[in-house]
Amino acid sequence: MDGFRFSTDLKVRFNETDAQGVVHNSAYLVWFEIARIDYLARFPGGYKGLVEEHDVDVTTIESYVRYRAGCRFDDRLRIWARTTDLRGARFRFEYAIERLTDPAGAVAEGWTAHACVDAKTLKLLRMPVWLAERLAELEL
Amino acid sequence: MDGFRFSTDLKVRFNETDAQGVVHNSAYLVWFEIARIDYLARFPGGYKGLVEEHDVDVTTIESYVRYRAGCRFDDRLRIWARTTDLRGARFRFEYAIERLTDPAGAVAEGWTAHACVDAKTLKLLRMPVWLAERLAELEL
Amino acid sequence: MDGFRFSTDLKVRFNETDAQGVVHNSAYLVWFEIARIDYLARFPGGYKGLVEEHDVDVTTIESYVRYRAGCRFDDRLRIWARTTDLRGARFRFEYAIERLTDPAGAVAEGWTAHACVDAKTLKLLRMPVWLAERLAELEL
Amino acid sequence: MDGFRFSTDLKVRFNETDAQGVVHNSAYLVWFEIARIDYLARFPGGYKGLVEEHDVDVTTIESYVRYRAGCRFDDRLRIWARTTDLRGARFRFEYAIERLTDPAGAVAEGWTAHACVDAKTLKLLRMPVWLAERLAELEL
Questions:
Q1: ipTM (interface predicted TM)
Q2: What's the rounded mean pLDDT across residues A103-109?
């Protein structure tokens, strides 16, 4: 997937399918989150450390999914993720989902927009410099 | 349903079905919990009040489901619930699920076992007398 | 909510919350679908009839959510829904979510884009005239 | 875990937690299913092959979970699984869940009871001999 440097793999769970025989549209947001968490796990402490040690909470303020082809039970998927648009408290993740058994292009794409907030007051909080720098490094 | 005095109704959600065309086995535990919460909502403050005002947390320590007939998207269900076996910190809920469009007996049954714990320390906590008395009244 | 004529109500389920104490971002797509299904239930046969009697399947091709305020366990929500942009096989649903206990504006908004497909071949299928006419009537 | 020969690992997903800060009780049934599917994946074709090539469907008729300690976001878990009680159409899976970062015994245990049914008629179907033999071999 062009422009992506990070990905995480998963296998479609049976409970993620619905009676149309394909994955329910809400599961993609769960997969995006898994990719986000694995992306951030490369920092010391990861996402948990971010929250627990730095009192920074990351909220989701927007999400968008483009569904291109239905995913089925047991499909092996690769979720690509990258950060973009860091500005003050806000930043975005972009995603592309590829089916490993049938790599004919993305089966889905999407993005989520986030804001850093103070874990106690929930007020907007400029992204900590160390985090902004690490994200910038990762996507250079 | 014999021996039950309380029930709550719901409609099967599309995302609760799976690729076998019927409801996924894990959804029944979600429905049991909905019935539990609606059952307790008859107390002042309900389940939230229990936790927030009385510092009592209710944990689930066991769950059992007997699946008798597959439920399908859009089925109207009635979830019957009752409390039983109050002893110290512990008590149980029993459930029966009936399909309203086809009331030929329970489509599922089950029970969950719970313990009252201190919301802060998570230590076992004898059920508050007022709660034990209310539960006993409700099931007389 | 301005411009909406249809809504459906629900209560936040405990399992829809996550460890941040608010509803998980993926649950909103489940609620949008519930509103869609209830919206279509006003047709004879509803969504199920559409699929089972008319061999029309409705796929989701895009989804977007704008999260404005966290929803919490037991919140009473009203999900507003309307159809828009009917063109050939494609159409959209728009949504706004209001908290009934705190009606200070939408806690979330969003839209989903859909296509009618043949339930067997999954090929794009112009929306049946009777359906397009009913949708147009509902939103006049 | 005594008596188990098969296990599969997973990491707790954020959406599997609830507002009590621990994993929701219904997620354990999803994990049991993942273990079941991975267990059966050692057969040619796996669970999908069982259904698609042999017209055998496996239904869940009972489930039981004993929750011993709350699991948290990002916990690494090992789900142990074994089959038992093969009799005619029926058989059971037993499970134990261990936290890899804190291997002080099972955080949960449980079992599910299943029946083989004809994938078309849903009538009970004696377990195919080849499958019974493979299961017996695996657990010798």
A1: 0.94
A2: 88
